[in-house]
Amino acid sequence: MILDITKYTPEESLFILGDDDYWAILLRDDYPDLIITKAWRQELLEWVGVKFVRWVLKGIHYELVDEDDTYDLSGDLLSHKWDTQALRNLYPTVKEWLEEAYTGDWIATYESYYGKDWQMYGDEFEFEMRNRLSALIREQFAQQFDEAEDEFGEEIWCDIDSGELATQQLLTFYIEQFTTTFLWEKFEESAYKQIADEQNQYLHRQKLANNILNWWKTTFPNLQNQRIEKPDYKSLLLEPQLEAQFKNFSHEWLEFIASNGIRGNFSNSVERAISEIAKKVLFSEK
């Protein structure tokens, strides 16, 4: 069944579509149907679930308070350490958690007397959901975007604007209907796995950084007792030497140096120059 969800409320649309293996949504008559699979919806739900579990495990609850500041009325957040069980039970529904729990981050508003917009988990969810939905539309409407008159396909986004907005509202309603108890029971294991993976990645990157730094010290032992500034970099002819060395490096090492440098005793300009050499060698490999 193909549904024009612009004619229904999100609640009505969800009742009609149900929990089928796929939703076929009409964004506009002269465009293909947007197919949202059950697996895609579950991935979005897992993203929310893992966020919730990690929020509970962090054990921090933020409270927005007014500051005695006549120049900025956006207030400030106070952090309170909470028991994890208390946090698990604080918001019974996902809707309440998204709308009431602060992340601790803020974005600048550039408005007089209201400089900070304190972010809720609902803001993070909206950003993630919209990005995922946009990517899905681009994937399924690949032909339309390839034939678009401009690089970004602005006319396509304008054409499907109302349908896309209705889909965002539907997905938000779909997520908000779940309980936080369900999220905890369903995604606790996934959250712990994500945390473990991140720790392993961090340790691996630390090992990479140490190995690369040890290579630098072993290859250029005479330069270890000085800070390398840009004039030194040029006079020592380090660029051709490093480029020759980098050509023998693994792809992983090159990617790390391109993003992070070598972490030796270099000035910022030299560190950037070294990263550019790694990017150049990476590009030449393609």
So how many helices?
A: 13
Structural class: alpha+beta
Query: Uncertain regions: pLDDT < 50 for 5+ in a row?
Result: none
How confident overall, as mean pLDDT? 93
Largest sheet: 3 strands, mixed
Proportion of residues in helical segments: 55-70%
Span of the ends, CA to CA: 45 Å
Strand order of the largest sheet: 1-2-3
Q: Compute the gyration radius: what is it?
A: 25 Å
- Tell me the series of helices and strands, N- to C-terminal: EHEEHEEHHEEHHHHHHHHH
Number of strands: 7
* Approximate strand percentage: 5-15%
The backbone outline, from C-alpha atoms, is globular
Describe the structure.
The protein is α+β, with helices and mostly antiparallel strands and 286 residues long. Helix 1 (10-17) crosses helix 8 (161-176), helix 2 packs across helix 3 (84-90) and helix 4 (94-100) crosses helix 5. It is 60% helix and 14% strand. It has 13 helices and 7 strands. The two termini are 45 Å apart. The strands form 3 sheets. The protein has a 3-stranded mixed sheet with strand order 1-2-3. A two-stranded antiparallel ribbon has the order 4-5.
List the helices and strands and how they pair.
Elements: E1 2-3, H1 10-17, E2 22-25, E3 34-37, H2 38-58, E4 60-65, E5 76-81, H3 84-90, H4 94-100, E6 102-111, E7 114-120, H5 121-140, H6 142-146, H7 154-159, H8 161-176, H9 180-219, H10 230-235, H11 238-246, H12 251-260, H13 268-285
Parallel strand pairs: 1-2
Antiparallel strand pairs: 2-3, 4-5, 6-7
Helix pairs in contact: 1-8, 2-3, 2-9, 4-5, 5-8, 11-13, 12-13
